[in-house]
Specification:
283 residues, alpha/beta, seven-stranded mixed sheet, 59% helix
Amino acid sequence: MEKLKKNIWLVLISILLVDFVLIYFQNFYNYSSNNIDYVNRGIESNFKIITNGYLGIFFNVKYFGLFSWLIIPIGIYYSKKNKYYFFLFILFLIIALIIGFLGYINFRYAYTFTIPIQLIIAYFLFSNNLFSDKNFTLVFVFLYLAHFVFFVSIDMIPKYYNRIQSNLNTTSNKKSIYKYIDENIKSDSVFLVNNIPQFYYYTKRFGYFYWCKDDELFTNDKRIKLFNTQNLNSVHKELKQLKVNYIFSDTLFNMYSSSFHKYLRNYTKPIYRQERLVVYQLK
């Protein structure tokens, strides 16, 4: 058991060292990429596609992936005692690699697997009374909290700093964009909603769901490809036939489709904006 404790300490200390490397490459090393989708997902470089993508279960800071490394000393320790644990340990590694290499483009797949890993780690740590050792507990808590500080510095601080800066650039008394829609746009108006599900929760207006990246518009009875087979004039006429008056979109999402972006510039006008969210009115 003492050997297991030492190995866990070694892994936790290694995690902190990896934190320093990730902080530099994630925040201070500039990457250039023309793929806005990869930039938004945090996999726009070879380094990030490995750490946040293929091996995200072990390295992606956003969902405490680094702590998944604790399964390694625990798995090795118990594999030597029981062949069934060895089988489960190997199965875990295989699943981790499959999810990482096939589902790397969307962190949710790895995130779904990371949660049970953390629960398994917690089970073995508590079931073996490792925390009855005061020194072990203090070191573990200190290193865990230290990692949390790194996590905040990498992910949360930049995110909220940008949000605060964005709010400072707008009037302080500006109302919520959802409140604006309900209070200032007629109840019989129809929206084209570009992949913003919150619209349906926070407003009372009707909207067709659309996703510009896949160019799919969902109506009551069919799925329409808007831009792949039509010019912008035809798209405008089709939206008018669907009685669409407004488009609700995110400026970041607009960049996923050059055709959709061009349509917004030429056939609509922005009438209200809150951070990246914009209400466009069709001309």
